[in-house]
Amino acid sequence: MRRQLFVTVEMLQADGLNAHARFANGVIEARLDTHRATFPASKPRMAAAWLAECALRNYPESAFSKLWSLLAAAAGGVIPFGSR
After folding, report:
1. In a domain, 84, yes or no
2. Fewer CB within 10 A of the end CB, N or C, for the chain?
């Protein structure tokens, strides 16, 4: 489960976005540029979904957001955050 979070971080970083996540003191600290959130250490998927949603809302012109929108359109609508 932790890998999915860090794969999301790597994808965002590869797109040039300033994304980071780390585990500290029993929580996950997720950051995308100036946007920050904390999650229980047992919820890495929630942190990954938050990072994806944050990128879509705040960086709609990023390649990550464009790909997400393309996949949502191909799926016939919106892809819920946190979906597989």
Report:
1. no
2. C
Q: In the chain, how many domains are there?
A: 1
List the 19-24 sheet strands across, edge first. Answer: 19-24, 27-32, 35-40
Six token digits for residue 31: 């950051």
Matching residue, tokens 């996949």: 71
**Structural domain span for residue 14:** 2-74
pLDDT tens digit string along 22-57?
Answer: 999 999 999 999 999 999 999 999 999 999 999 999
Instruction: Supply the DSSP symbol for 78.
Output: P
**29 burial via Cβ count (<10 Å: 0-12, 13-18, 19+):** middle
Give the mean pLDDT of the chain. Answer: 89
Q: pTM, whole model, 2 decimals?
A: 0.84
Residues 46 and 39 sit within 8 Å (Cβ to Cβ): yes
